[in-house]
Here is the input.
Amino acid sequence: MDFALEDELLALQDTARRFADEEIIPVAAEHDRTGEFPRKVIEKAWELGLSSTCIPAEYGGLGLSILGSCVTTEEIARGCAGFATSVMCNDLGLTPILVGGSEDQKKEWLTPCAESFKLISFCLSEPAAGSDVAGLQLHAEKDGDDYILNGTKAWITNGGEADLYTVFATLDRKSRHKGVCAFVVPRDTPGLEPGKKEDKLGQRASDTRVIHFDGVRVPAAQRLGQEGQGFGIAMKTLDRTRPMIGALAVGIARRALEECLDYAREREAFGQSIAEFQAVQFMLADIAKDIEAARLLTLQCGWMIDQGMPASKQSSMAKCFATDAAMKATVDAIQIFGGNGYTKEYPVEKLMRDAKLMQIYEGTNQIQRVVIARELLGR
Ligand code: COS
Here is the structure.
């Protein structure tokens, strides 16, 4: 077992780390305050090879492994989770094309995303169907060689900024997962309208919206896989991206630890630095060991997927463990900072707000436990 990263990946990790230090950290608090989408910075991430990383070399992309994407995502998230979510969302949005698209569809849709900067959205969740994917309601009606999409998607990252949407719709809701189809829908398709931007607790730099589909005509050539294969495409996509969400959480927890170490060394109480107190040391030690365990789980899962091994259980374990660890780390970080941590003068309250979303998106941590338990019980 070799835990060393290859030189090429170490160089990309270094690029991502410098990008976070130089481009993200200086502006992250301002974007958190205003909620303004940092388009220029996200574009720079793409120019540096840190976004849309999953596009294989034969379509002009970097063809980065899932393990590699975990490594870069952790670095970007250490800068700001909202920025990292916007960056990695391109891989989430492109993966359905990778796992469900034909050769022609991959050429048509992936190549332009490798050639120039584009933002992609993954449209799965709906106002009344987040966890229950088979219960989604966006309706696809066959009309000659086309489908007409009607309905609403919700909580769509990059929703108002995207050039391309991968969209999941049902031919017949009663058929549950067997009725779900996946489509590629460009932004300029008539009838596709992003709604108002959500005013979120955390990850405020990322653009999250409702997307309305009002009679959106989509040619059958833009359907990924066969009719009814959309559910499987969505599940396979999430299996591949959940370790990146785990890595994103590791980045948040790592930032919390860095901030706590600096603060604990400087802050004095009872005539000594608070880092001298075991009560503080134990919290620091817990954050550090959870980061190590979460990182190992996410990288192991990335590696398994890269080897072509089934990894649904590991993927859910990595996502669930790492995001719970980030939540605990950021709550403890505020405890270490005391009253200061509860104010916007210090960076840790933002980390806690950002971490909370991690336990909810890409499948709540309750859903992750369902997936893990089903595998344990052989269902
Ligand atoms: N990969 C491939 N196929 C899968 C799969 C996976 N990871 N998980 C399930 N399937 C297949 C099953 O094998 C089954 O196939 P058959 O038709 O051959 O029987 C089919 O899909 C239906 O599976 P299942 O019965 O398990 O579906 P459920 O409706 O019970 O739902 C959960 C499964 C809850 C796990 C799923 O809906 C889910 O992941 N929900 C969370 C979604 C999510 O993450 N939302 C966040 C928005 S995305 S940012």
Observations:
- The chain has a mean pLDDT of 98.
- The two ends are 31 Å apart (CA to CA).
- The first strand starts at residue 120 and ends at 123.
